[in-house]
Write a structure and sequence with these properties.
Distance between the termini: 103 Å
Order of helices and strands: EEHEEHEEEE
Structural class: alpha+beta
Low-confidence stretches: none
Strand order of the largest sheet: 3-4-8-7-6-5
Number of strands: 8
Radius of gyration: 42 Å
Number of helices: 2
Strand content: 15-25%
Helix content: 10-25%
């Protein structure tokens, strides 16, 4: 005798099953079935319901109620092996600072070549503090800072730079240009920043 087939969809039936696995049609009642109907159990006193578990601390000395670490006798003392790490970190930071200072000095020394452009000294605002002074063969940038008001500084540069173009960008910033020199003035926090850019 061949494999039984479903009378509904024609799929082959698996021996010992009560339903077609393809369409769900019940099989012939005379075929021996090994599957049992799903039983619905009534609740009893011994029924255990799902309950929420309390969270357990994962860090020794951690109190979930206070969100802080508490000193406990079981906490390991890590001071014994943290000194080497701190010493290595300190040496690395010191080395990084020394290298950075060396690179900055070499860049400044390299930028002061014989053919480097220098900002005209007549354009340095009197009493201003130098913030940045960089130059190379293509151009130079000088940033100054003064406590004088923006209008006073602007008037001084109009007299000394004699700009061919003046642009008031905002109430606190002005750009003046003359040939190969551009002066940008910005007022902020009771200080006026002066950036002079000169190209060849």
């Amino acid at each position: 005798m061949g494999q039984p087939i479903c009378t509904q969809c024609g799929a082959e039936l698996i021996p010992g099953t009560s339903y077609c696995r393809q369409c769900g049609q019940p099989t012939d009642e005379s075929a021996p079935g090994s599957e049992q109907a799903t039983a619905i159990l009534a609740g009893t006193k011994d029924t255990v319901t799902t309950r929420r578990l309390d969270s357990l601390p994962t860090t020794p000395g951690y109190d979930p109620g206070s969100d802080s670490l508490l000193p406990t006798a079981t906490s390991p003392d890590k001071s014994g092996y943290s000194w080497p790490k701190l010493l290595i970190a300190g040496i690395l930071v010191l080395l990084l600072v020394v290298v950075s200072v060396g690179v900055i000095r070499s860049l400044r020394a390299g930028s002061r070549t014989a053919d480097a452009i220098q900002i005209n000294k007549a354009l340095i605002y009197p009493g201003a503090r130098t913030i940045v002074d960089m130059s190379d063969s293509g151009g130079a940038v000088l940033q100054l800072e003064t406590p004088d008001a923006l209008d006073k500084v602007r008037a001084w540069y109009e007299a000394n730079l004699k700009p061919t173009k003046t642009l008031r960008v905002t109430s606190t910033s002005v750009i003046q240009k003359n040939a190969n020199v551009t002066v940008t003035l910005v007022s902020a926090d009771k200080l006026t920043s002066i950036v002079i850019k000169q190209v060849r």
